[in-house]
């Protein structure tokens, strides 16, 4: 298998991978440095040029930012589009991307953002405040799964091409973090409108741009979407008009392979360069394989158990005592083992790395005997009640 030389495998798509639970590892063909990373050249064993072939999971049906809500399409959106703010580091602090400066009013109800100079879309069109307003209003009015992110945005004002003023219906300490989300990426409004897009209040019934945005991008990111075959393949090519610093990879071919064993086999045979959905079992089989490097990274994936409070639907599970018994009976250490190395149990639903997180919870797993005792005692009390 031919050795790879990839420029710091931090492809722009991977920014969506954050922290808390280890949702499976990644494996790639051997990454070796030849001098500094600036001089590193990407070579694909499958194509013989600077194309990187990636295998990732499935479970999505659209690449239109206004509708994107699942895990994997966000990786593609982050490669093709840019936001006002972005998480560049895994510390929960959003930093300006397309934004240059920002300022909140004293009452927290107004956010004023100034755009950077010289920003352009892949089409060559200049990025203006009107594009920002169009993109966010479109997501809000499409009323798709991610539209709730815009709930605190009452209106958007654009007094000039470089200024965006958000009027909020209540103070929102998370508004900067929300503006990093892929569904609030900035779209080229001229291109989207030409292909049936609208940000009008009735966009949920009149916007017809989704089919276009499933097969082509209209953003300002490092890459442009050139093709998408559902459940099979996504192709990204370098944006020749990218306003920032370009990477050394000209093309990403993303193979949609939901099965980790398939990814392991195609990686081993040299048909792909990077496998993003390795399990502990497949990684163990690849350990020590010639020309393959395993990279374990934290993600923003969180798993939780939902218990319905409505007794009509859930019966005894609606009882807080039974819910407490379930919480105490869960084998948290066992769950962490199943999820994979590096999995953490947070204090609550807000996982580590997010605003409001209380950090990691240590020493929470009682012995099985104690768990069972807690369960039996509480269920017995509930039954007697």
Could you provide a short overview of the structure?
With 385 residues, the protein is α+β, with helices and mostly antiparallel strands. It contains twelve helices and 13 strands. A hairpin with a 5-residue loop joins strand 5 and strand 6.
Largest sheet: 7 strands, mixed
Q: Count of helical segments?
A: 12
The ordered string of helix (H) and strand (E) elements is: EEHEEEEHEEHHHHEEEHEHEHHHH
Distance between the termini: 67 Å
- Overall 3D shape: globular
Strand content: 15-25%
Rounded to an integer in angstroms, the radius of gyration calculated over CA atoms is 23 Å
What fraction, in percent, of the residue positions are helical? Answer: 10-25%
Q: Which regions are unreliable across 5 or more consecutive residues at pLDDT < 50?
A: 1-25, 30-48, 365-385
Number of strands: 13
- Give the integer mean of the pLDDT values: 81
Strand order of the largest sheet: 9-10-11-2-12-1-13
Quickly give the structural class: alpha+beta
Polypeptide structure, described:
The longest helix has 17 residues, at 368-384. Helix content is 25%, strand content 18%. The protein has 385 residues and is an alpha+beta fold. The protein has helices at residues 73-80, 129-142, 175-178, 189-194, 203-206, 210-213, 260-268, 280-286, 311-314, 320-329, 332-339, 368-384; strands at residues 25-29, 51-56, 85-86, 95-96, 99-104, 110-115, 153-160, 163-168, 223-229, 233-238, 251-256, 274-278, 292-295. Helix 10 (320-329) runs antiparallel to helix 12. It is globular, with a radius of gyration of 23 Å. It is built from twelve helices and 13 strands. Strand 9 and strand 10 (233-238) form a beta hairpin. The N and C termini lie far apart (67 Å). The strands form three sheets. The protein has a seven-stranded mixed beta sheet, with helices on both faces.
């Amino acid at each position: 298998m031919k050795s790879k030389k990839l420029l710091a495998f931090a492809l722009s798509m991977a920014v969506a991978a954050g922290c808390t639970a280890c949702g499976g590892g990644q494996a790639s063909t051997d990454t070796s440095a030849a001098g500094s990373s600036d001089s590193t050249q990407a070579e694909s064993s499958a194509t013989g040029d600077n194309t990187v072939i990636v295998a990732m999971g499935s479970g999505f049906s659209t690449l239109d930012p206004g509708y994107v809500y699942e895990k994997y399409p966000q990786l593609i959106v982050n490669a093709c589009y840019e936001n006002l703010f972005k998480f560049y580091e895994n510390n929960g602090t959003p930093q300006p991307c397309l934004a240059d400066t920002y300022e909140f009013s004293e009452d927290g109800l107004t956010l004023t953002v100034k755009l950077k100079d010289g920003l352009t879309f892949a089409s060559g069109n200049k990025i203006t405040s009107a594009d920002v307003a169009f993109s966010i209003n479109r997501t809000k009015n499409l009323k798709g799964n991610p539209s709730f992110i815009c709930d605190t945005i009452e209106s958007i004002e654009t007094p000039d091409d470089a200024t965006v003023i958000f009027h909020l219906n209540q103070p929102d300490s998370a508004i900067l973090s929300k503006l990093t989300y892929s569904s609030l990426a900035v779209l080229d409004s001229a291109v989207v409108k030409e292909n049936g897009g609208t940000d009008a209040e009735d966009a949920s019934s009149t916007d017809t741009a989704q089919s276009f945005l499933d097969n082509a991008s209209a953003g300002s990111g490092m890459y442009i979407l050139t093709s998408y075959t559902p459940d099979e393949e996504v192709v990204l090519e370098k944006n020749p008009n990218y306003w920032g610093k370009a990477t050394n990879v000209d093309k990403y071919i993303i193979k949609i392979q939901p099965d980790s064993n398939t990814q392991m086999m195609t990686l081993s045979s040299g048909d792909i360069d990077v496998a993003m959905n390795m399990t502990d079992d497949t990684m163990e089989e690849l350990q020590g394989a010639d020309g393959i490097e395993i990279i374990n990274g934290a993600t923003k994936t969180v798993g939780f158990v939902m218990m319905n409070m409505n007794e009509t639907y859930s019966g005894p599970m609606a009882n807080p005592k039974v819910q407490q018994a379930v919480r105490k009976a869960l084998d948290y250490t066992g769950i962490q083992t199943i999820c994979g190395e590096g999995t953490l149990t947070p204090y609550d639903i807000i996982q580590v790395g997010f605003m409001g997180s209380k950090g990691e919870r240590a020493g929470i797993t009682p012995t099985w005997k104690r768990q069972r005792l807690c369960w039996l005692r509480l269920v017995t009390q509930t039954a007697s009640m």
